[in-house]
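Course exercise 7: structure representation. Students receive a sequence record and must write out the corresponding structure in token form. The form below is the worked example handed out in class, using Oligosaccharide flippase family protein (522 residues). Read each field label carefully; the graders check that inputs and outputs are placed in the correct fields and that the protein name is recorded exactly as given.

STUDENT ID: A-19
EXERCISE PROTEIN: Oligosaccharide flippase family protein
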Amino acid sequence: MSETSLQSRFKFKLFSNVAAVLLGLITMAFVPRALGPENFGKFEFITNNFKLIFDTLTLQVPVAFFNWVSRKGHKEDTDVASGVTLHFSLIAAALFAVFIAGTILTGTHSLLWPGIDVPFLWEALLFTLVVFLYQLLVFLADGKSLTVGLERIRLLQNLLKAAILLGLVFAGVMNLHSYFFGQVAVVALSVLLSALWLRKQSACSERTLAVWRFTRSEIRDYWSFAWHYAKPLTILMAGGFLFLYFDRWFLQLIGGSVQQGYFGLSDRLGAIAFVFTSAMTPLLTREFAFAHEERNMERLVRLFERIKLFLFIAAMISCFMSAQSATIIKLVGGEKFKGAVLPIAIMALYPIHQTFGQLSGALLMATGQTRLYSKIGLSMLVGSVPITYFLLAPATYAVPGLGLGAGGLALKMVVVQLFATNIQLFCNTRYLKISYLKWLGFQFCMIPLVYLAAQAVSLLADEILKRFFAELSHDVVANGIAFVGSGLAYCVLLLVLVYLLPAIAGLSRKDVDLNLLSRLGR
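STUDENT ANSWER:
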């Protein structure tokens, strides 16, 4: 399998992502039930919060590292870039640990992280660090077109994680501490295996760990690039930190860990629709960066047009999950999570425009338009704060709100994402000199049509279940069969729609008769 083929790398990354989703669904059917909404909410709140803090502290240098490797990794040594980025990030981690210790000593940790006990803060820091180190290795592998080998390790990681978590559940020892440590152990093993494999592929060496051996000029040259590239993104993160922090913190303050658990579950399940896009994003970013480096505008336009197919796939999965939110809760969370039905129905739609945000944003990042990217992101973050407050704040507050809890936060995220990604899209179409109105028309024709198809199939399935199998309406097996049957019928309906109207998937009549995936690498 060619490591330099976009098609082969996408296929294997997609296979790995699908396997991760299937294994994740199996564990999600047991883990949230075992932890309960409160503990699950604590995990979601503190890990998302710590990731935000750590991403801010690293000043977006890892993102610059990925762009540098994508552009120059095929022709230049990457040890200096890898070493500088790694050691800079470890210093940031040490500062974060000192900050946590300071909040504990002063007692302010209860204000910053309401309802979170001190031991969970250190466990979350460890989890955040090992996940970050693994992501850094993924950046190196994707940037040097070594995706396939690392995806094999990720597949092993997901198998081990599922086995360990299910083992903890069935052994009756699943709690928040064991949930943290089980995942940390698996990711740490993945970091070790990935580093050894990349060393074997000559993507890195022991020199990476010995940053003191680098010359000043080597460090200066890379850091000059990294800082120039990352500075606008750093401004975005620094300026937007409080706004991003506010969302989850306010939900934790108002609704507590239970509402946080509802939102966390909806966020996890909604991410399933993002599986195809997340497989393509780093690969497409690399291709955008390479085409930009070669000044190949025709290839940039051709790559950008492929986003339509991924938008359709994301909409296809998102709309079905939104329509099936009540059934999903019966299968995954159980009665304890019935309050998550509405958040799931809303949050399942988030990946549709998250697809634009990732893939359209990838073009801005790859072509060095980080200043524009940061301006768009920061303006959306500032504007989102009053929306969050209005949707979440109780009616009893001095400035009353709607008190919608997790559902309100999900609604805010979908609305803001819709506006932000269309602004990005407008800027990209101007840069590529293609029509924005055609892209806008594509969204507002395709998405409602797909959603109507999902609702029609779901309503039909519910009616059949109520009329002929009323006594089994709450049975897990019966709902599972209904869910799978609805999914199959929905896929058939969409295949017919794509055949009749290929344009809804961003395809031509000629494309319908060809293997779609085989065209992605051309």
